[in-house]
Amino acid sequence: MNSTDPPDQSSPLAAPDDSAAPGERLPAPILGAADSADDRLQRLSLLYEVGRQLASLVRLDELLSGIVVAAAEVMQARASSLMLVEPDGKHLTFEVAFGEKGPQLKGIRLPIDDTSIAGRVAGHGQPEIVNDVRENPFFSGAVDRTTEFVTRSILAVPVRGRGGVIGVVEVLNKISGETFSDDDVSLLTALAGSAAVAIENARLYEETRRRAAELAEMLDELQRTYSATMHALSVALDTRDHSTQGHSQRVRHYTLALAQAMGIDNREQLEVIHYGALLHDVGKIGVPDAILHKPGKLTDSERLEMSKHPEIGYQMLKDIEFLRKAMPIVRYHHERWDGQGYPHRIAGEAIPIEARLFAVADVLDALTSERPYKSALSYEQAAAVIVADRGTHFDPRVVDAFLAIPPAEWQRLRDLVAAGDPATAEAAPV
């Protein structure tokens, strides 16, 4: 293209108003105005600002758009485009183009070979200036035929990443009608260098986000699996002793209600309650059926055997990582505030708070549930027993929290389990 050629006013890829300075056409967040873009110093200053702002973009789509806008701005060109090397390493794909009809180019593929200027640049890794495409044997004109754009001159430079060429940035047809120069090559190459760093950073950012999302989904699935395993184990335990059907789910709800009444909202503590309540009697697997299902009172030796189930449960769970959260309740749910419980006879604050909460919930459910050897008590009768044991069997603060919860709420929770509500098998609190 000769310097006397008139600017191409019919360019479909040009900005809507070609008479405006490029800096006036471009978004302020990406570029500042360039009132004298022919001045090399100002162009270098603009290039520095472009590189700085590109480095701040982390979304790949925004970054790629910013690169082509920046290329047109710095080079005072009518159009610009960015092509990226496909994973197969054999093709370039137009990712974004600057101009009114730029979206038409998106997705067009070019082989990395000598059948196109961009393909040559990607293949050889060297910039190319073509100031008259009519005299260049490597200009195919295929893209012009697709877009109806008239290309007169091209400057194309490789976008070089850490592992080699990752793309090509092109600018077409200087607005001034001048030819592209070696200075233009240097400036666009510098811009491509900044673009390469920004693209690789953005790709890393997006890959990190994608992997984080996949990991989160995997962890959610693992959590669902854990919760389903807990539920299955608790159902199996309740089924083994028909007289306690639904007991594990009821005491889970009861203990969580007590925790809420005491202002406990720590995720880890709530998970201890969730898992521990469901598996509190897992140690009864080691108790003989003759003792577990005995309809009458236990003998001293039988009570001694039964009292081993908290420690049996602890030994079963202590080496299973995802079940360890259940251990405070499993191991200590039969300890008493006054130290007269079993199996370790610890007292007061030495008993984990989760086990102290559970002790009240467990006794409430035992008293209000029918057993082969006894009838169910009313809430009022059960509450009287619990209050009488305040400060001996139970932590006084937990008893106070129990009394702060209306009787109707305890009944609602019991009915929830009886109805088989899906909430009874929900995941651990979050």
Please explain how this structure is put together.
The chain is of the alpha+beta class. It contains 16 helices and six strands. Strand 5 and strand 6 form a beta hairpin.
Strand content bin: 5-15%
What series of H and E elements makes up the topology? HHHEEEHEHEEHHHHHHHHHHH
Question: What is the approximate shape?
Answer: rod-shaped
Separate helix tally = 16
Distance between the termini: 67 Å
Physical arrangement of strands within the biggest beta sheet: 3-2-1-6-5-4
Write the layout of secondary structure elements.
Elements: H1 22-25, H2 40-55, H3 60-75, E1 77-85, E2 91-98, E3 109-111, H4 117-124, E4 128-130, H5 142-147, E5 154-161, E6 164-174, H6 182-240, H7 247-261, H8 267-279, H9 289-292, H10 300-306, H11 309-317, H12 327-332, H13 353-367, H14 379-388, H15 396-404, H16 407-418
Antiparallel strand pairs: 1-2, 1-6, 2-3, 4-5, 5-6
List the keywords:
430 residues, 10% strand, disordered N terminus, 16 helices, 6-stranded antiparallel beta sheet, rod-shaped, alpha+beta, disordered C terminus
Write a concise synopsis of the structure shown.
This protein is of the alpha+beta class and 430 residues long.
